[in-house]
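re: that complex we talked abt at group meeting.

here r the seqs, copy pasted straight from the sheet so there may be weird spacing, ignore it
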Amino acid sequence: MRIAAIRIYGVSLPVVGGEYRMASATNKVLDSTVVEIETDTGLIGYGEVCPAGSVYQPQHTLGARAALEEICTSLIGLNPLEIENVARAMEAALNGSSYAKAAIDIALWDIAGKHYNARVCDLLGGAVRRKVPSYYSTTVMSPDDTAALVAEKQAEGYPKIQTKVGGRSLEEDIATIRKVGEIIRPNVKWAVDVNRGWSTRDAITASRLTEDLPYVLEQPCNTYDEIASIRSQLRHPVYLDESTEHLGIILKAAVERTADGFGLKVTRLGGLTAMRTVRDVCHFARLPFSCDDAWGGDIIAAACVHLAATVNPTLCEGAWIAAPYIDGHYDDIAGIEIKDGWIDVPTGAGLGITPKQNAFGEPIREYS
Ligand code: 0XW
Ligand code: MG
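got the structure back, here u go
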């Protein structure tokens, strides 16, 4: 089997509810990039990368598309089942931009699943369950609004809630944490995600002033080094998210015990192949992690869910997907949805997603 053509689509995903606010950025519309790989046997695989704007992390939409422009021509004619060989060809064509290569990598796993008539989770080692936990992530809001939304979402059945803070006064952040602390149920996991928004001083202060509350502190400061330097002064477990740019950081954090877990992004780490290794490292180090991406539709959501299905449940922090903030699906029948806070693992071969006719409009680039 050979790669016969690669088509790139740009898909605009307006945020339901108007905007998604984090400490680092507020987004109203997210621009996703869908990769469609067609083989000479007629099999088609899909991948997707959708950074959450251009400030959340160094990855951004136009960067992904420029990187794909550098890479795609050299992949025509390669065997898509030889995922490592295709990865080598991508490395030979372009240094870095793992997040763009991730979209190709995901499409290759989709093709492999369809070829071997297996789900991507089966190829990744096997699913340990039929549905995976998700978590609800609030946007930065007032203390009362945040607490009201958290109450609603935990009543819906979400096993984990992530509350966003940062990008405003520390007093309001602390008041928000306290309000949520009044209503969060003991059996619901809780992360406070600062999205890089606090100085080391703010992080130490906020953690100490709320030390009675049972949350995990996610990416409090901008860099790994900042977080490592205050780690022993914090009163809460620490998860790294934006700092996890590559496997090396995960290894370092595991060895130095700088983090108690991770919020991971499949495309930032380089796709499902890289995430399989990261998963195994986290299993070995007994560090919990989530299987998320920054944003995107059914394709990236399916990739996250397949991966999460293979994670040891005691270490699985869930799969976050953007579906609650997106109107409609690429696949109206098997599109990925959250039901009562959990997500069914797709049952079809590959990613299990069949995009409807014209789901992405006309391609913006085509290589053959
Ligand atoms: C909640 N997320 C998974 C979605 C947004 O892109 C931010 C991200 C996070 O945890 O930082
Ligand atoms: Mg995060």
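couple things i noticed - Residues 22, 52, 56, 137, 162, 193, 195, 241, 263, 292, 294-295, 320 surround 0XW (ligand 1) (CB under 6 Å). The two ends are 15 Å apart (CA to CA).
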